[in-house]
Structures are given as structure tokens and as C-alpha cells.
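1st attempt posting a full record on here, be nice pls
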Amino acid sequence: MSNARRKLGQWGENVAAHHLTAEGYEIVARNWRTGRGEIDLIAQAGATLVFVEVKTRRGRGMGTPEEALTPAKAKKLFQLAQTYLYENEIDDVAWRIDLVAVELDNAGKLLRCEHIPNALPGW
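the predicted structure (as C-alpha cells):
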């Protein structure tokens, strides 16, 4: 991944974390990694543990942030969430996977930061 893409992704994650905190979420972890992948943000919303995928896009050339959450990525996120729960010995807790879509115009101006709870219904 290029340095510019990495910086854009980090910037988007910071925007998303700020947005979630303003909504009353507590950020538990950032960039939780395992050999199989990464979860951008893990947050607590009341009694619910929330695994958050952040998708940041500048312009629409690569589609919307929501379109970047493909079925393959959704499956991977579900598996990563289960791994986190297992490794941290977390049982019997409500959890879900959310998406935060961060979109900028081509000049880098923030157009929107949208939190989409339960982005993987039925998983």
C-alpha cells in the first residue's frame, strides 16, 4: 500500500473514531491485528461490542465506501471478530459489525462521515 493511501486510511479512521465517540461509543482498540487481517476499530456501545470497518474514499473513481465492503471482506471481518472474541475469552456478549463510510471530494474536503450500524445483517 502506498504511503498516501495509508495516510488517507489513518485519517479516515481518526475521523470515524471521533464520530463514534461523539455518538457515545467508547473506542476499545484501534488497528487490532492478527496474522489473518485487521479490524480498524473496536468499540463499546452500552453492552454491545462493535467491530468497525472504516472505508475512506477520495472521489468516486473507486466507487463509494459502502461498495468496498464486498462479500469476501464481510466474511473476513466476521472471522476476525470471532478470532478477537476467542483470543480475549469473551463469551456471551452481544456484538455486531458496523461500517463507517468516510468520503472526501477530489480536493480532500470531507463530504460525509456516515455510521452504518449492523452493516452485515444476517451474519
